[in-house]
Design goal:
The complex is a heterodimer of chains A (about 160) and B (about 290).
Chain A: E1 5-11, E2 14-20, H1 26-33, E3 52-55, E4 58-61, E5 74-76, H2 89-96, H3 106-119, H4 125-132, H5 142-161
Helix pairs in contact in A: 2-5, 4-5
Chain B: E1 7-10, H1 14-24, E2 28-31, H2 37-42, E3 50-53, E4 63-65, E5 71-74, H3 79-84, H4 86-91, H5 93-99, H6 105-108, H7 113-119, H8 125-132, E6 136-141, E7 144-149, H9 150-153, E8 154-156, E9 159-160, E10 167-173, E11 181-187, E12 197-206, E13 209-218, E14 225-226, H10 228-234, H11 241-254, H12 265-286
Classes of the chains: A alpha+beta (about 160), B alpha+beta (about 290).
Amino acid sequence: MSAPHRIAVTVNGVAYDRLVEPRLLLSDFLRQDLGLTGTHVGCEHGVCGACTVLIDGNSARACLSFAVQADGSRIDTVEGLGTITNLASLQAAFREHHALQCGFCTPGMLMTCVDLLQKYPLATDQAIRDGLSGNLCRCTGYENIVRAVRAVVAQRKAELDD
Amino acid sequence: MKPASFDYVRTATVDETVALLALHGDAAKLLAGGQSLVPLLNFRMLRPRLLVDINRVGELDFLRDDGAGGLSIGALTRHHALETDAKVAARFPVLAAAMAHVAHLAIRNKGTIGGSLSHADPAAELPMLALLLDAEIRTRTASGARAHAARDFFIGPLTTALQADELVTEIVLPALPAGTGWGFEEFSLRAGDFAFAAVAATVTLADGAVAEARLALMGVGETPLRLRELEAGLRGQRLSPQRIEDVAAAARAAVQPPSDLRASSDYRRQLVGALTERALSAAWRGAGGGA
């Protein structure tokens, strides 16, 4: 076993200071060391998108990054998005449009959507589908997920037009 | 799937990085975006003793004029930066178009051009674009600097001319002549998946005929390919739809794509024909060529 490294990270606004082995994946660090099990682990090789989080504001696969690399970074996970009594508008749209079934892919879908919404206009359903193509839903609930994102895009446009 | 144990060093400069590579050679692996490397580590297909994290080597993260109308791109430039950079869009729109096909946003946020070229996946867009655009790939070792022409760089699947102690530092894309038309066509099952095949073309005209045409392919061989004989045959020609169809047929005949679970060799060959026709037509029209 190689020597652990000390890292300082801010996750959902909370500062953490931890010792981590270099090979510890960011996804395992979040779940096992910090107890933040909202970030789900599916394929562990960057294909399913379930572990998507934001690193310094940009979406990334937590399974394709090591905790030691996150030293000094800001991480945002689904736990930071909203609470049960105060859902983020994206989460509210997912609920409204029944965009989750078993819920396993949902944290990754949500964190992916946060980044898609801040970087792309998502003016068409095709753009939404292309944007979500890196996130797998084993329930195949894609249609309702697209509807939820479409609703958020429309809501955002209405707010901008006001 | 968890990686085997390794030591980790985060470097801050190129000098520090190449010194470590000189010391550790094959036992060390460079960690840039990690989007191809970390899966290989997770599967334990690679078990380096040392990972050298270059993500904070600031001097490798730049995108600037090469002084002659082209671009000089730092090895740590992320895919998403290439996808959205105004200079890339203005000078190499074919590259900007190709970047939208590179994996998914979460991958493009992390993946780097130096990493993609070094990894040399035969179904990756950036090696193909480097070949299309006659890129020069500049590197450093502890003992000095080198430069590789893209055409000599890709040797086989996941194999390049790089030595174990060599770090890609910069990719230079020489300017395309003004008025160059381009086309990029890719086919994959879902957006962002590895493509079954892709074709990129550029066409530059002089007096209404082809002065220079380039055709690059990927996903159909062990490395990205340039169809240089076909390119030479286009010089001086006016490209009617019939002529473009003939070129597409010749492209189809020129490749021997692999068969795998997703697509047979024949299917890929058909794709090469269709994609070549579309890409070359778009490049010809974009350059101002008449019907």
